[in-house]
Amino acid sequence: MDNFEKAVEAGLALTKRLYYGRDDRAAEMTAGQSKAELGGRKYFPTAPTVYAVISDPAIVDNPDQPSYQPHLHGRWDPPALIPMQMNRVELEVNCVLSSAVVEFRGSFRVHCVATNRKCDCRVVVPRSEKTSILGAEVDISGRSYSTELAPIEEAKSYMERVPKDEDMKFIQHQIFSFTIPQVQGGAVLSLRIRWLQHLSYSDSEFSISIPFTFLDYVIPSGKLLKEQIHLNVDFGTGKELICTRFSHPLKKTGHEMGKLRLSYEAEVERWSNSDFNFSYMVSSDDVFGGLLVQPPHPDDFDKRNIFCLYILPASNLHAKVFRREVIFLIDTSASIQGLPLEESKNAVSAALMNLRPTDSFSIMSFNEEIFSFSSSLVPATEEKIEEAHQWLSETCHATGGTSILLPLNEAMKMFSKSLSSVPQIFLITDGSVKDEKNICHVVQNHIRSMGLNSPRISTFGIGLYCNHYFLRLLAQIGRGHYDAAYKTGTITLQMKRFFNATSSPLLTNVSIDTLGHLDSLEVSTTLLPDVSVGCPLIIMGRCNESFPNSHKVTGSLADGRELVINLKAQKTKGLLIDKVMAKQQIDILTASAWFSGSNELVDQVTTISMQSSIPCEFTQMTLLQASEKKTSVTQGKEVHFPKSKHVKPCLVHGLHVGFGNVMATDKNILILSDEAHGSTDSGKGVNCCNMSVFGDCTCTCCGPDVGSTFAHSWNDCTIAVTQYCAAFACLGCFSLCSNLCGN
Fold it and tell me: Which residue of 262, 367, 471, 499 pairs with 333 in a disulfide if CB–CB is 3.0 to 4.6 A?
């Protein structure tokens, strides 16, 4: 990702060539944006952003007010990226239960390329691990583009003739990106992007954070800026929704039981400089639930109704929770060394501090061997927790390979048979192993033999080398929960949230009397996860017209009582339950398809993916121009591919996770390395000194900190500057480049 930021840094340096006249507000803002203001993010996008891709720096100019530009020869490889100015922005968020459909609409202008020249434009959208892109549309100068999903097998030949976007290897899983080819300087690009985003849940609050921080260099010069946000919350229940926090000055435009409508619209001097954050809660002193039934969309291939059953924990912070028996399994193979392992240990240490003295715990680190903190579970006293902190620091070092079944087997033997406690295993790993399917079978058999008091197995994956579908399925078998962090720097925070959400069960051994009689695509077992303080239970599926109107949910409380919740089916329309359900279906069925090897399940996932516009592992998203589409029919859904081989379609990046990388795990390749991702030149930077300089000075392109970026090329830079200075005596530029490039 450093190379991406260096490309943006180089692009911003190029904007020094732009002249806006006396009211040079944009130039002042770009120059005034300090690294202190940017924090650790530097030039990484913090909101949807469009970049001009500059391979030929000679095309950079103000299309409205051209000025004399020193002529430049040569091309940049990889290209520089100039963030384009944004003229309009609108955000619409529709929340339903624990998910939200987000729509971003923005207008961007190619403000940095001469009117008689063209450049590619790259759209980049930051995204979290729990974000699914639903699609994008672009209109520009009479051209229209939109994303299309197609089965990956059908897309193979198409993908082979798409030019390789080499610098996309710098784009990691946390952003979604595509490129619009050859856009005229001065043109306006209208962008519409939709995505599905998960809401977090903590202390009875649902919360969402949407990337909406725009840096100063996307503000156009001398224009009034209009910023809009529209928020709709529909929980489908008769209970009161309470708005608890919001980052922008939202005003209520509608309010009724179970619904909230808020909006914000203002003329501003600068775009939003903070992400859009919003929280709400459903107030209740007791564990409660609801059941929503919605007819299918008219175009849905499955004509059965959609149902959604949810159980929420009580808002009462003093609700009694079960005594816990917890075992942490920490992968300490060589590939996790460095920051990932340190963050994992920090999160486990924090989780231990949240245990009560009546709880018990143990810790195992594993590679090919097991290293145990204790041979049996120990009480979570201050003394034992302090010993555990020291053990984590002194014993957990990254070395060796990865074996997951061995520590799982040992952990499952350590629990007591007490019905008054909840046994929990937390597995943390960054690797993929060859016997994953066998592990699922072994755990499945163990849980069947132990019955209702079997351990809950929750899994947390780090990076892209581990098989996240295996970890998801293992958690499903173990009645636990799954989460992941794909990048370092977020591991500690996400893991802490994960432990806090899942480790305090309020209601266990949950069962639904009618569940066994439903023809459901999602629920593969009647053993459902516990309802924890920070983790509601949400079940979705399909039902026919004979679906019962009333259902009984039962579960065990920590005080030994059985809780019974009677639910009445509530028919709804207009909610976005179909999108939420489709995402859940895709995740569960993809894990099942991997486990069973069933082509029928692959076809089913592919159909759901194309029907819902939610990408999966078996579909490929591309961006195609409307006038260059050819229609074919696959899986009952129209897909479009360009007919002409001269068309330059664009692959969309950042959507696939894959099924793990056993080779990378076996070789203990670090999860921060580019080696297993196929990078051939991971050290390649944005080298502004690759150009042949025979005329005017290119030093304005060097940008800050160029010495550290281009240290390997400082001789070339010195020669170039010397050539220029000999001809034009540009002593100021010579002094600048001397300081930057090592004298």
Answer: 367
- Pairing between β-strand 378-379 and β-strand 99-109 as defined by DSSP bridges: unpaired
| CATH number of the structural domain spanning residue 268 | 2.60.40.1730
In a shared domain, residues 171 and 70: yes
Closest to 576 in 3D by CA, of 91, 92, 94: 94
The whole-number average pLDDT for the span 625-637 is 50
One domain for residues 356 and 482: yes
Could you tell me which residues are beta bridge partners of residue 538?
310
CA–CA distance, 368 with 479 (Å, rounded to integer): 26
Name every residue whose Cβ is closer than 8 Å to that of residue 356 and which is 6 or more positions away in sequence. 323, 324, 380
| Domain match, 299 and 358 both | no
What percent of the chain is modeled with pLDDT above 90?
Answer: 32
Q: Token pair 């260099």 is at which residue? A: 217
Q: Is the Cα dihedral 122, 192, 47, 170 positive or negative?
A: negative
Q: Give the pLDDT mean for 546-572.
A: 86
Asked, as a colleague might, if the bond just before 78 is cis with ω within 30 of 0, I would say: yes
139 phi and psi angles, rounded to 5 deg:
-120, 130
Residues 266 and 307 reside in one and the same domain: no
Q: How many other CB atoms are found less than 10 A from the CB of residue 719?
A: 12
Q: What angle do CA 607, 613, 618 make, to 5 degrees?
A: 50
The rounded distance, in Å, linking the Cα atoms of 249 and 317 is 29
The length of the chain is 743
CA nearest 543: which of 371, 369, 294? 294
- Is residue 348 a contact partner of residue 392, using CB atoms and an 8 Å limit? yes
Say how many domains are in the chain. 4
Q: How many CB atoms lie within 10 A of CB 81?
A: 28
Looking at the structure, tell me whether residues 489 and 396 fall in a common domain.
yes
Asked whether 42 and 5 are in contact (CB, 8 A), the reply is: yes
Mean pLDDT of 50-69: 87
Nearest CA among 393, 327, 321, 389 for reference residue 353: 389
User: What CATH number is attached to the domain comprising 537?
Assistant: 2.60.40
Is the Cβ–Cβ distance between 72 and 58 less than 8 Å?
Answer: yes
The helix or strand, by DSSP H or E, that contains position 708, with its residue range, turns out to be helix 706-709
Which range is least confidently modeled, 65-79, 152-166, 249-263, 523-537?
Answer: 152-166
**Do 307 and 372 belong to one domain?**
no
